[in-house]
């Protein structure tokens, strides 16, 4: 005979959504099932972007400073899978709106509507994309980030179809962005890039990291300085907003000046819409972390990072917006306050170049150590 269950009131832990079998009590959540990945640029968090996964992981995956997709295999997702994910999102949005109407809330996406739906479908508590999707709807459903590391590598036709479908299902969308590798952009034809742009992809986030060829080889970026220029310029020519990320401190003390000056040279040649600073941080498990521990490379102090930043900015000749978001740009001024704006629109060059250089000089006078890094 079965013993009485003393813990009867404790809800069972459901299986992961990927393991849900037809006919189980979890079946009812299937119509809302979609994938979402982990990584997105900081600015896409601040604008509450929908995180929509068109591919899985990174097709390159060799960079010696990066741990994002290590151990994970790159996978293209089929057009059918992508469509099913977007259909699931549309069903979720529609059901939330219908509940809101029933509640007399006029179809607004509200917490009340979410609570009612979660009461009906408690499995949504374990859905790893529901909270993100709900917040996106609450924020007006305006911006989307296509994951993962280089979805521009998809067949042009498949990417265009998926973008068109997304824009049709969610007409509230104002901006769609994704990560892209310079080399992939250089390899695609200009006609293909223009067609993708016209299908509704607005902005590309490129990991430039550095414009120095020796450092690019050291970090195994798989692209030369000229390749960065070719890819970035082609993306600009195709009509994309281009956002280039570089890493102060990436070359350590050994390469700081070449890193600063060649990065300025390459960025000046591209003249992208945005230049974003993401100071280097050695991540345990990466080759660069090992090199530092073995004394082969020496990290810059916060002051040395600022000095490198100053050299780069002085040599920079662009009309871009130069930005320092919350991902590690935490230098402090002599009063102990944040030195540089974390705003996603940053400093407009050339108008605000002098202002930025003055701020950096202030930071160089400061004895305050930056606070711990945040990467949210
Ligand atoms: S291309 Fe980007 S995601 Fe891929 S390994 Fe390099 S830094 Fe990481």
Instruction: State the CATH superfamily name of the largest domain.
Output: Aldolase class I
Please state the CA-atom Rg, rounded to the nearest Å: 23 Å
Approximately how much beta-strand content do the residues carry?
5-15%
End-to-end CA span: 52 Å
Helix-strand sequence: HEEEHHHEHEHHEHHEHEHHEEH
Q: How many helices in DSSP terms?
A: 13
Q: Pick out the low-confidence regions.
A: 1-26
Q: Biggest sheet: strands side by side, in what order?
A: 1-4-5-6-7-8-9-10
Would you tell me the structural class of the helices and strands?
Answer: alpha/beta
Helicity level, as a percent range? 25-40%
What is the correct CATH architecture of the largest domain? Alpha-Beta Barrel
- DSSP summary, beta strand count: 10
CATH top level of the largest domain is: Alpha Beta
What compounds are bound to the protein? Answer: iron/sulfur cluster
Domains (count): 2
Calculate the mean pLDDT score and round it: 91
Outline the structure in words.
- The protein has 2 domains: 30-67 and 74-141, no CATH class; 181-367, Alpha-Beta Barrel (TIM Barrel), CATH 3.20.20.70.
- The protein is globular, with a radius of gyration of 23 Å.
- The strands form 2 sheets. The protein has an 8-stranded mixed beta sheet with strand order 1-4-5-6-7-8-9-10.
- It has 13 helices and 10 strands.
- The protein has 376 residues and is an alpha/beta fold.
- The chain has helices spanning 42-46, 79-102, 111-120, 130-138, 156-169, 182-187, 190-198, 213-218, 225-237, 252-270, 287-293, 302-315, 353-364; strands spanning 50-53, 55-56, 75-76, 143-147, 175-180, 203-209, 241-246, 274-277, 321-323, 347-348.
- β7, α10 and β8 (274-277) form a beta-alpha-beta unit.
- Bound molecules: iron/sulfur cluster (SF4).
- Residues 58, 60-63, 66, 68-69, 149, 181, 207 line the site of iron/sulfur cluster.
